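Researcher: Quick sanity check before group meeting.
Model: Go ahead. Protein one:
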Amino acid sequence: MELLLKCGVPGLGDRGDIVKVKPGYARNYLIPKKMAVKATDSMKRVIVEENRLFEIKEDKLKRSLHEVAKKMKDLSCTIVVQAGEEDKLYGSVNAHDIAEAISQQGFEVDQKMVLLEEPIKMLGVYTVDIRIHREIELPVKIWVVKE
């Protein structure tokens, strides 16, 4: 069965691609979840127009986020924590703590945007990447200091 994808499907294709799938997968998963439609000429024209509008919106969003990234370029946050012997923390500093510290400086950041491989467990200065868009990442300096 030929389908036209309305959004990107991992392992299958991107938005606007025409793919061939088994009828059961199309009827039971892709079409009910509105991820795809049957590939007809009229639907192809509709998807082309939707893609054009989507690209315009995406371009506007990227431009506005580039402006935010310029403002956040030299951002540095200090997180005050309790620490014990040898500068080990009681607990850890995680993505939620970092997002909260950045938000206190006037930038709306969700903890999902903070790219932290593992929680910080020692005092020091760390560079953490913040992904404000799937194509825009910027480094933020995090100072973890003793209370």
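Researcher: Fine. The other one?
Model: Protein two, sequence then structure:
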Amino acid sequence: MGKQYGSDVIVDYLTQLGIEYVAFNPGATFRGIHDSLIRRQDTGGPRIIECLHEEIAVAIAHGYAKATGKPMAVFTHNVVGLMHASMAIFNAWCDRVPMLVLGGRGPWIPPAGARG
């Protein structure tokens, strides 16, 4: 097996949990996980549902859980993405539907000598 990244471990874990779909608005705050999801598409990893907004991604996960009874994962961007998704997350909570919401990282300035 070649080099494995932390994002590969997260995608493997999602697969072990039985997560079939991940909805998100693509962007740089979780690009590693996006890459890992793409690499796992042919080996049974979660399928990608690209969305134009975080609130839509959460609403899709809400509907999926209502229709199937199974949780779906959603990736949100740091700070603003989570704020955009917050009302849809609240609606899902009120409706008591399961979902996994993961947030991306914010701006990061690597320490001197570190690689990002």
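Researcher: One line on it for the slide.
Model: The radius of gyration is 15 Å.
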